[in-house]
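JOB MANIFEST
job_type = single_chain_structure
chain_count = 1
residues = 213
[input]
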Amino acid sequence: MAEIIPACYGDLVYIARNMRALDAEEILPLTWSGKPEDLAQRISVSGGLAHVALSGVMPVATWGANMTRPDFWSVWMFTTDRWPKVALTVTRHIRNELIPALVADGAVRADCWSMEGHDVAHRWLEALGATKEATAEDYGPTRKKFYCYSWTRSRLERDGDFDYVRRTTSPKNAKNAVIASNAGACGCRNKANARRSASKSSSNSNTAQAALG
């Protein structure tokens, strides 16, 4: 059973350290240090939208968006190899909550850059309604080719999707989503630690019972 919670450093760093190989190849070279810990820290203090999907008590995927210019958002996601456990839940959340929240908050554009060869990510972005609109060579120190996938308000209006998105949420809900996403990082960390402690205690208890049996 997948669960979506606000992101906190503890969950972010776990996912970053255990990223699927193509995500790590795509993302880490574009950070200043190339370290998963710094990537997690940057996300946790960015002030944008950030969510985590759990499978049981284990963090599996994280995604979100940051406003980089007025009404212009950068969208991101990375996951561990357990992605199939949460893929449907995350996809529904982005389609039905994140994208409508950005639109309701006045966004005119959101985009995501993805590395050539990361075909699973490209198919997923297209399934979410993103359009491949640009190619950039030598995108970072690895000199790999990257593609820009985007959502634009003009495209939503032309394609008739805008009315659906607009009905899904309201500006008030969008503001609440931003607040909820950034609220209580320490509280999130405490909850994450509590989940893991409970899981560890349960595991130890089961082991002890098995030994006594």
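[summary]
The longest strand covers residues 58-69.
Residues 185-212 form the longest helix (28 residues).
exit_status = 0
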